[in-house]
Specification:
The structure holds two protein chains of two kinds. By secondary structure, chain A is mainly α. Chain A has helices at residues 4-16, 25-37, 43-47, 55-69, 82-100, 103-113, 138-144, 160-184, 187-200, 205-233, 238-251, 256-268, 273-286, 291-304, 307-320, 325-333; one strand at residues 156-157. Chain A has 16 helices and one strand. In chain B, the strands form eight sheets. In chain B, strands 1, 2, 3, 4, 11 and 12 form a six-stranded mixed sheet that branches. A five-stranded mixed sheet of chain B has the order 18-13-14-15-19, with helices on both faces. Classes of the chains: A mainly alpha, B alpha+beta. Strand 1 (156-157) of chain A pairs antiparallel with strand 24 of chain B.
Chain lengths: 334, 525
């Protein structure tokens, strides 16, 4: 019953109910806030200790929390809806302590807090992993069959092991499909499928390796497609074309030519000077020795009214090619 | 505001204590003793006796003297343990309508909670006399390994005695509370509690005003009474060999032997040898008086009971394993219960833990003192030591094939809740029965059934497809609730497990009213 929805329901209940409560106003607020934030707190947050806390610190923190939140502390008090909240809060404190006090469980929990690659995965609080797998052993089950199982409607434990195996199997399927797409040369689809496999089984090294190989190619492929589309749009709808090219630039952030094209495009668009500056800076950063980029940068900053920066870029361009008359002219007009 | 007392309801003796001005006080009874025998008797004249008065006349009135009722509390009449007692006890056991155990005393049948209730009522009276005020609430201790039925029946006994039990706590935990009172040292202690009827071991972490139970284990059928029985058996065998006459079946002789055995056992804690003299214990075929005279040495005693002491070792080891600790990590060992006075017990404990046990507590009184401390902590505004307790036995449900799926392991800190997913075992199964069990056996049938309910309305489908989430929840008072939810439909069903004692609520109310009205219980001598 420590699911997030219960915690939220309980905190709403506390806020709404008008029953008499024998607790200081400030403590009521504290419990409400604690209970409401339970779904997002790590076990370290719950005990208020840093990730590197020693076992003695964890024990002391648990004792401190117990003194503040153990329901027995308020045995004779009228708690109204806070009885339930306090219980939920303290149960989480106990769960946190149960995991963090045990080096094995703590290690597993720590790994679950930092998923290897997929940063986007929300840091959910897994239930205490104290249960071991309990798949019924068939031999023994068979000899006892009929005693309980068949007389009453049957019930079977879906063991953690089985749940784990199921998601591993599903991950495997996604990965096989991904490899097929890779063979067909559909890098984008392959990358998507490997990501799915990783979501199901984040600890498989093979998936990580494969994704590292597929993802850049999938991105390049997608960037090329987007670019082709943008180029056809260029003559008709420059704003839409710019949007598509930006997407391509996101997929291939090291493409200096693309950044330059975007800068040239934005400098012509209304209100596009800021972005033009952003992209030309990127182009210049990627290739500092390009006269063309420097010249464009001079143009962008001149239009933006930043003559100091414009001069800097143009001077560098002139050094790169002292024979270029256009540069000299631009410098003179500045 | 009336005061809350702490009572140690023991197998052989009971003790009551209270916190006065922040200091624990063990309350002496009318005779000046700090403990009172947990014995009830009815004399030939129909007079009811409790405590020392009942004990004093036990030899001449063995059939109508009930002792060690605690060993019968919360048990079913047809259980093997009760069958064993039936042969040993001089008083008569009868089967109650709920398959509970009852006793026949002077022609009247009493329930076990009634007997315990009479002892508790006496402890209440002792406290009231001392305080000059009525007492309505108490904290009572029970062996750590008592199951739900035994705890609930103890609660019922309290109700019959006119006491509301704020909490039932475990005896070794109470001892630790008393030991840790006013001490602010961070240390890990082991409480080795060998009482009259039960053996308990608890490992606790103390410090910063908090006492946390790390693990608890025990044997509800191992205690000082078993030591006495070993001696009695030896005396019987010796007598039979010498006189070619068996004394089994002679309740008066057996009661005299039991008393003599207990006394000899206690004497041998101080002396190297003692003489057991029982004149006129029986008569031979020619009506000649036969006497018993046996010299018992400490060595012989240790030979007789050594097996019992050794039996505690694996239990201690299990508690350490549960606490994930080694013997070396234990800072202090506390001895509780009268049987720990025996030098051999102390020796075995000392060698197991590799350190001399702590000598600072009175093993007969420390449990009641702990109960009084917990009573004050719960009932008063003051900041007392906070007890973080565990659930003593595993909880779970019965699954296909008669297996027991534990959701909450024993020694889990409470309050707590745990969930697990279950599924169906037959195609198109639309209902599952949730049978809530307590115990340690892997076989469902070997555990205690606490309650059951059915979750229906599961959409028909292949077996193994539906996902049913079962949640167990225990609050700080030890109240268990269980719910089951079909994850596909959201349909849910739940129960609060009302622990069942051996009597129905109606019977308890009837008895409570009866004793409340002062009816016929002039147990005072």
């Amino acid at each position: 019953m420590s699911s997030s929805s219960d915690g939220e329901a309980a905190s709403n209940e506390a806020a709404n109910a008008g029953a008499r409560v024998d607790l200081p106003e400030a403590f009521q607020r504290e419990i409400r806030e604690f209970a409401r934030s339970l779904p997002t707190l790590t076990y370290y947050d719950v005990l208020g200790v840093p990730r590197e806390a020693e076992s003695a610190d964890i024990r002391d923190a648990f004792f401190q929390r117990s003194k503040a939140y153990h329901p027995d502390r308020y045995f004779k008090k009228e708690l109204g809806p806070y009885a339930n909240l306090l219980n939920e809060v303290y149960k989480r404190i106990v769960a946190a302590h149960d995991v963090l006090r045990d080096p094995k469980l703590r290690g597993a929990y720590d790994r679950s807090l930092t998923p290897p690659i997929s940063e986007s995965r929300p840091a959910t609080i897994p239930p205490p992993a104290t249960q071991v797998s309990r798949a019924p052993t068939s031999g023994r089950g068979a000899s006892l069959r009929g005693r309980l199982g068949l007389k009453s409607p049957g019930l079977m434990l879906v063991s953690l092991q089985r749940q784990l195996e199921q998601s591993r199997a599903r991950a495997c399927k996604q990965f096989d499909a991904a490899m097929l797409q890779k063979q067909n040369g559909d890098w984008a689809r392959a990358a998507q499928l490997v990501e799915l496999a990783l979501a199901l089984n984040p600890r498989e090294k093979r998936y990580h390796d494969e994704l590292a190989e597929i993802l850049p190619r999938a991105n390049a492929e997608r960037a090329a497609a987007v670019r082709r589309k943008a180029e056809t749009l260029l003559s008709r709808d420059r704003v839409a074309a710019a949007e598509l090219l930006e997407e391509a630039a996101q997929l291939s952030p090291t493409d200096a030519e693309l950044a330059h094209t975007l800068a040239e495009l934005f400098v012509e668009l209304e209100g596009g000077l800021e972005k033009a500056a952003l992209y030309i800076e990127r182009a210049v950063a990627l290739d500092e020795e390009s006269k063309v980029f420097r010249k464009s940068a001079g143009e962008v900053y001149r239009k933006a009214g930043d003559s100091q920066k414009a001069r800097k870029h143009l001077q560098r361009a002139w050094e790169l090619d002292p024979m270029d008359k256009e540069i000299r002219q631009a410098l003179q007009t500045l | 505001m009336s005061r809350v007392i702490g009572i140690d309801l023991g197998t052989t003796n009971s003790c009551v204590a209270i916190l006065e001005d922040g200091q624990p006080v063990v309350i002496p009874n009318t005779g000046g003793y700090k403990t009172t025998p947990s014995i009830f008797a009815v004399t030939e004249e129909g007079k009811r006796l409790v405590g020392h008065l009942a004990k004093r006349q036990a030899v001449t009135n063995a059939k109508n003297t009930v002792y060690a009722a605690k060993r019968l509390i919360g048990r079913s009449f047809d259980s093997p343990d009760v069958a064993k007692f039936k042969e040993l006890l001089p008083y008569e056991l009868v089967q109650g309508p709920n398959n509970d155990v009852r006793v026949r005393v002077a022609g009247r049948v009493y329930t076990i909670p009634e007997i315990s209730g009479i002892v508790l009522r006496e402890m209440k009276r002792v406290a009231e006399e001392y305080l000059g005020d009525t007492v309505q609430q108490a904290v009572i201790t029970v062996p750590a390994y008592f199951n739900d039925a035994q705890r609930q029946t103890t609660r019922d006994a309290g109700r019959i005695a006119g006491l509301e039990l704020l909490r039932i706590i475990n005896e070794p935990t109470a001892a630790a509370l008393a030991y840790g009172f006013g001490r602010d040292k961070t240390e890990i202690i082991a409480v080795y509690d060998l009482g009259g009827g039960t053996f308990d071991i608890s490992i606790l972490q103390m410090g910063k005003g908090v006492i946390e139970v790390l693990a608890t284990s025990g044997d509800t059928q191992l205690g000082g009474e078993d030591f006495d029985r070993k001696i009695v058996d030896y005396l019987l065998a010796t007598f039979k060999e010498k006189e070619k006459l068996s004394l089994r079946g002679d309740t008066m002789a057996l009661q005299r032997l039991k008393d003599a055995a207990e006394k000899a056992k206690c004497d041998l804690s101080q002396l190297g040898s003692t003489e057991i003299n029982l004149p006129f214990i029986a008569a031979d075929a020619e009506e000649n008086a036969l006497h018993m005279s046996v010299l018992l040495t400490r060595e012989k005693l240790e030979e007789l009971v050594g097996e019992l002491v050794v039996r505690t070792q694996p239990i201690v080891q299990r508690a350490l394993d549960d606490a994930k600790l080694t013997v070396k990590q234990i800072d202090q060992v506390l001895l509780v219960g009268g049987q720990t006075r025996m030098p051999m017990v102390q020796k075995v404990v000392a060698s197991f833990f590799g350190k001399t046990p702590h000598k600072g507590v009175n093993p007969d009184e420390v449990v009641a003192v702990g109960a009084a401390i917990q009573a004050a902590m719960l009932s008063e505004e003051k900041e007392g030591p906070l007890l973080v307790d565990v659930t003593p036995l595993s909880l779970g449900i019965a699954t296909f094939g008669g297996h027991f799926a534990k959701l909450i392991e024993r020694n889990t800190t409470v309050p707590t809740s745990r969930q697990e997913i279950f599924t169906t075992t037959r195609d198109n199964q639309t209902a599952v029965k949730i049978r809530v069990l307590q115990g340690e056996s892997e076989r469902a049938d070997d555990n205690d059934l606490l309650g059951e309910f059915v979750l229906a309305g599961i959409p028909p489908g292949p077996k193994g497809q539906p996902e049913i989430e079962v949640t167990f929840d225990i609050d700080a008072n030890g109240i268990v609730s269980v719910s089951a939810r079909d994850l596909a439909t959201g349909r849910a069903q739940s129960i609060q497990v009302n622990p069942r004692g051996t009597l129905t609520p109606e019977e308890i109310e009837r008895l409570a009213t009866m004793y409340q009205q002062g009816d016929e219980v002039a147990v005072k001598g």
